[in-house]
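Weekly structure sync, notes
Attendees: PL (lead), two postdocs, one rotation student
Agenda item 3: pending single-chain targets
PL asked that the sequence for the first pending target be pasted directly into the notes so everyone works from the same version. It is reproduced below exactly as submitted, 175 residues in total.
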Amino acid sequence: MATPPAPGPGLPGAFSGSQGQAGREVNTASLCRIGQETVQDIVSRTMEIFQLLRNMQLPNGVSYHVATHQDRQGKLQEHLRQLSVLFRKLRLVYDKCNENCAGLDPVSMEQLIPYVEDESTKHEDHSLANQLRLASEERREIVEKLKQKNQHLKQIMDQLRNLIWDINAMLAMRN
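Predicted structure, written out during the meeting:
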């Protein structure tokens, strides 16, 4: 039995294209991870493109080096090509995720959270509810006391303002 040749520069890889996908099934979680990495690559490439654009000089009559300009333009074209490839990869991952999730029926998030209820948690829930009720009542009483104190302070400030007004008026009449 002969072993298949190793993939090289002229031979297609064992896991490239749809041939590799048929040989092994990729789960949705790993597809999402690949998609996340692809998005991160897209963002970093986009930042590199903006960096290159910022460093490029506009041809506004100032002499510039043609070789430098051509080099930067080549880099920009390469980054744009790679960005296009990354977007196509992201589209493939997105389509594959949708294909994998098409047969699933939606489940509410509450059902996905494991929850075991026993007698001790029921007792804790009742005691917690009582503590919350007591804390709420206590807070309400404190707020009411603060409102009364604020009202009293406002009355004192009004009386002081009137007293100062009267004193200023008497001093003005004396002069």
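Discussion points:
- The helical segments are 17-23, 28-55, 66-101, 109-112, 119-174.
- The chain is about 75% helix and 0% strand.
Action: rotation student to compare against the earlier draft before next sync.
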